[in-house]
Design goal:
heterodimer; A: 639 residues; alpha+beta; Penicillin-binding protein 2a (Domain 2); seven-stranded mixed sheet; B: 366 residues; 68% helix
Chain lengths: 639, 366
């Protein structure tokens, strides 16, 4: 039995190996005969084809998707643009061609040569784009003279059209030619040199959706590279549209409210986290970046002290200043260290060990309770509360409110800010935390830094009694046929663990900030809608008793966070005015204007100027509405 | 430890065959990449490094008795399958496919070792499986499970080329083990209606399009079709004797896609013509038949099955790649073993050959 099995086991496979060997040989014979067919029978034809290889692949660029506001109004769309390309294989006299083009188009010859060198490594029939964004007249002239310039090719491509000018420039971002580093990255594998890609903002972060896929034509051309016939064609697929949560009109008014001040504003829907306005001022002209940015303009952007190219709402890191007192107050209430009746006597300063910490009001506030402490922004009250809380407990609450980590708004490189703890200091500096360092932290100074987005999310979380929504910019992605590809519903980041009744106690103080005498935020007041908020002033550098002429870059930042209506909050706003000095006087009016614009848009407040009038006037009027209070808040300088 | 007999019975024929093919590959890559311009380390130099690394692997794989593999086959299989699952969740996406796994020190494409590990798993399974008279349908249950998991995972990445290769390797081994005619007929009969049903009810339009483009590249003439036409022109214009080393116009003018990797053979065909191609074809056929011979001379079932599996792996790579280059098959990213530029392919192929050499030199040990 065993022997028999052994024999079969050995014999069977051997027979099968023979069979398989024959099959293998047969298949190789098939390959060989195919080679015979191609290399011997068809050889003549194919050799001719290879000598006059005039099959050419011409890419047809896809139209980029549009970016729309929450109501479907266009923020960015496309318009045709003409570019000049050369096809290396057809170029008879490279230097003459480039010279002619440089002269006629008024471009730098070295630049054109550089582009030629870079494109040369690829297939010789592949067009190298050497100049884009030429005018229609230039295009027509070149088209007429094409026969005299062999190798020249004109391409028509859709490009971005910024019909709203600089509106929301940082948010939308700009396009630029794909760089060599980007080409090496996996995300851009299907891109070719000369393609345009999003370089910042939504254009960059949502590139995948907006780009669409390029089509192309396989064409046959004659010996001079002229088109003969199309052999086959694939049409490009238009990119998807991105519908933002932004309200275009509110965005416009918010930007106008800044005037020429530098800073950022974020307005949120309190009950969904949708970002209604996203301002970083001053803006820049995204259209300039699409073509060739004149070196002068570039230099002007770089030299501007207000840093127009920086996205301050997303990446600006500011100490939250007194706006942070909201968190210190809530922490104290939740931990049972204070209640609304707890009082502290403010004499204008507070001493811990050898260090004296001053209240912004040297005269002192006298005996203050929580409401007055918030309203008049008494520092001593919060120094003492902060000291009892300790830095780690403060940090825990700050993190609860989303500070210290990027919030994931849907843009790349969002900053996370910093919430200091004892551990953090140990790791970072290898030093212990001093008790005295806790005091500045409790009024939002010291190591703590936040982004305007985080401040807006924080005040929105207070407004809606403890639900922290993810602030987000994209509402949905829609394909060219109008089908919704992706929807981004509100996303709850956290349900805060604080007792619900505590919010009311803090909110009463915030209402007083804006609406009661001696409140620091009266310039954010609206008469039709109750606004609640908190001012903040954050030190850029320590200045001893500075009076009068502080250089711009050393002036304090001005902050204001607010929500409205008080009873049933809908909108939360955070405004930072860089080097604006006082939250109450520099940031609060902007918050007031934004809120006014919002409620005008909703029809709650009647526009003071008829619709036909200049919109800028409406913004200005909003600012003026609170001017009578100016004298009051002038005394209350800052916090 | 090292038996003298092992050295005298070392399979120098197989070893030289690999060296010859690899060297031809290096020369060819030199020509294919000549027009790429100056790069820090030329491709042909890097290929030499890969060959040296591969030869080191061959020695490693030869140094132990391959019977050990029988004990660890399923473990290897399990680990690689696990890695494939990890790719699904944590894989690195590149060009629309998720194939790579970042393991900290280096990145790995687990579908590559799967080609060898599936051979080990099958060999282990059938080496202990009673075979009355060819495999009946119910005997295919476990093999189908062993194959199905990896094949579906690879398909999902998506990497159709590798998925097809894994299935072909497994099927070749099944044929070697022996199938009853009834089994073959039943499988074919069952497959037809399910393909029909899947086509009409399961697959989405874009999936159908992808499959149709795969079968008929002329449908999508801009991508695969363009490559195919240019490759055919390159091969055909080579004629009987070729245009000569570094003289291929298709190659040097960059009409060929991926000309140092997947389309390396069309570069060779253009520059060395029918005579050159015949030589390469003959070398590969010799390699495959030699592999089968090793299987036939091996005295234990595990080794014999392993030899057939590894040979099948090399065979299908050669056939699919050459078929693609000369326009018999659609374009799939399958490299030509030892000939195309690339470390991944070199490592897999060299390990395969190491196993063949291992089996070959220990055939007298029983």
């Amino acid at each position: 039995m065993k022997k028999q099995r052994f024999i079969r086991e050995v014999k069977e496979p051997r027979r099968r190996v023979l069979g398989m060997s024959i099959a293998v040989a047969a298949i190789f014979l098939v390959l060989l005969s195919r080679l015979w067919y191609l290399q011997i029978i068809e050889s003549e034809n194919l050799r001719k084809l290879s000598e006059t290889n005039r099959l050419r692949f011409v890419p047809v660029a896809a139209s980029r998707g549009a970016i729309l506001d929450r109501n479907g109004k266009v923020l960015v769309n496309n318009t045709p643009s003409f570019s000049v390309a050369v096809i290396p294989q057809d170029v008879k006299d490279k230097d003459a061609l480039l010279n002619t083009l440089a002269r006629y188009l008024n471009l730098d010859l070295a630049d054109l040569q550089d582009k030629w060198e870079k494109g040369k490594g690829r297939a010789k029939f592949y067009p190298i784009i050497i100049a884009s964004g030429i005018t229609r007249e230039q295009m027509e002239f070149l088209e007429e003279n094409r026969l005299r310039l062999p190798g020249l090719d004109i391409e028509i491509k859709p490009i971005r059209e910024y019909s709203n000018g600089q509106l929301a420039a940082h948010l939308l971002g700009y396009l630029g030619e794909i760089s060599e580093t980007e080409l090496d990255k996996e995300t851009y594998q299907s891109y070719n040199p000369g393609d345009y890609v999003g370089k910042s903002g939504i254009e960059r972060s949502w590139e995948n959706y907006l780009h669409g896929s390029d089509g192309g034509k396989q064409i046959e051309v004659d010996a001079r590279g002229r088109y003969l016939r199309t052999i086959s064609e694939t049409s490009p697929t238009i990119g998807n549209s991105i519908v933002l949560t932004i309200d275009r009109d509110l965005q416009k008014r918010a930007e106008q409210a800044f005037g020429d001040k530098a800073g950022a504003a974020v307005a949120l829907d309190v009950n969904s986290g949708e970002i209604l306005a996203f301002v970083s001022n001053p803006g820049f002209d995204p259209a300039l970046f699409t073509g060739h940015l004149p070196a002068k303009q570039w230099q002007a952007y770089l030299d501007d002290k207000r840093h127009p190219l920086e996205n301050k709402a997303l990446k600006g890191l500011y100490p939250p200043g007194s706006t942070f007192k909201i968190i210190t107050a809530l922490a104290g209430l939740q931990e049972g260290l204070i209640d609304e009746n707890t009082t502290v006597s403010c004499t204008g300063s507070y001493t811990v060990g050898r260090d004296t910490f001053r209240c912004w009001d040297k005269k002192g506030h006298g005996v203050v309770n929580l409401k007055r402490a918030l309203k008049e922004s008494c520092d001593v009250y919060f120094y003492r509360l902060g000291e009892r809380l300790g830095v780690d407990r403060i940090a825990a609450y700050a993190r609860e409110f989303g500070l210290g980590a990027p919030m994931g708004v849907g843009l790349e490189n969002e900053k996370g800010g910093l919430v200091p703890t004892t551990d953090w200091k140990e790791k970072k500096y290898g030093k212990k935390w001093y008790r005295g360092e806790t005091l500045p932290v409790s009024i939002g100074q010291g190591y703590t830094v936040t982004t305007p987005i985080q401040l807006a999310a924080m005040i929105a979380g207070v407004a809606n009694d403890g639900t922290l929504y993810r602030p987000h910019l994209v509402k949905r992605v829609v394909d060219p046929d109008g089908r919704v590809l992706k929807e981004f519903p509100p996303e709850v980041l956290k349900k805060l663990s604080l007792r619900p009744e505590l919010y009311r106690k803090v909110k009463e103080g915030l209402l007083a900030v804006v609406n009661e005498p001696r409140g620091t935020g009266s310039m954010a007041r609206l008469y039709e809608v109750k606004v609640a908020g908190k001012s903040g002033t954050s030190q850029v550098v320590k200045l001893r008793d500075s009076k009068g002429n502080v250089p711009y870059q050393y002036r304090d930042h001005a902050l204001f966070v607010a929500f409205a209506p008080y009873e049933k909050p809908e909108i939360a706003v955070a405004v930072v005015v860089e080097h604006g000095e006082h939250g109450g006087s520099a940031a609060a009016p902007i918050v007031g204007s934004i809120l006014r614009a919002y409620f005008e848009g909703k029809g709650v407040i009647k526009s003071p100027v008829p619709k036909a009038g200049d919109e800028q006037d409406a913004g200005e009027t909003a600012g003026e509405a609170v001017v009578p209070e100016n004298s009051d808040s002038e005394k209350v300088s800052g916090n | 430890m090292i038996d003298r007999r092992l050295f005298t019975s070392f399979d120098w024929t197989l070893f030289s065959l690999i060296l010859i093919i690899s060297s031809l590959g290096v020369f060819n890559i030199f020509s294919a990449a000549a027009s790429y311009g100056v790069v820090s380390t030329p491709y042909f130099v890097k290929q030499i490094y890969w060959i040296l690394a591969g030869l080191f692997l061959v020695t490693m794989v030869c140094s132990f008795d391959y019977h050990i593999l029988e004990d660890v086959a399923f473990w290897f299989y399990g680990v690689v399958l696990f890695l494939l699952v990890m790719v699904l969740f944590f894989g690195r996406t590149s060009m629309g496919a998720t194939r790579w796994l970042n393991l900290g020190l280096f990145s790995l494409q687990p579908s590559e070792p799967m080609k060898i590990v599936i051979v080990m798993a099958y060999a282990r399974f059938f080496s202990r499986y009673p075979l009355p008279r060819g495999l009946a349908l119910r005997d295919l249950f476990y093999p189908a499970l062993l194959l199905g998991g990896p094949a579906l995972l690879i398909m999902k990445q998506p990497d159709l080329g590798t998925a097809i290769l894994v299935v072909l390797i497994a099927c070749s081994m099944l044929i070697y083990v022996g199938l009853r005619w009834t089994t073959v007929v039943t499988v074919v009969l069952a497959a037809l209606p399910s393909i029909y049903l899947a086509w009409h009810y399961v697959l989405r339009d874009y999936q159908k399009n992808r499959i149709l483009n795969f079968i008929d590249p002329e449908r999508d003439p801009l991508k695969s079709g363009y490559h195919l036409i240019q490759s055919k022109i390159a091969v055909g214009s080579g004629g009987v004797t070729g245009k000569g080393f570094l003289q291929g116009t298709q190659t040097q003018l960059h009409f060929l896609p991926e000309q140092h990797t997947d389309f390396a053979f069309s570069v060779f065909a253009e520059e060395w013509g029918f005579l050159g191609c015949m030589l390469v074809l003959f070398l590969y056929m010799f390699l495959i038949l030699w592999g089968l011979q090793i299987a036939s001379r091996c005295n234990d079932r595990f080794g014999s099955l392993m030899a057939v599996g590894v040979t099948a792996m090399l065979f299908w790579h050669v056939i699919i790649n050459m078929g693609m280059v000369i326009g018999l098959f659609p374009v799939v990213g399958v490299p030509l073993p030892f000939f195309s530029y690339g470390g991944t392919s070199m490592v897999t192929s060299m390990v395969g050959v190491g196993i063949l050499l291992n089996i070959s030199m220990r055939r007298f040990m029983f």
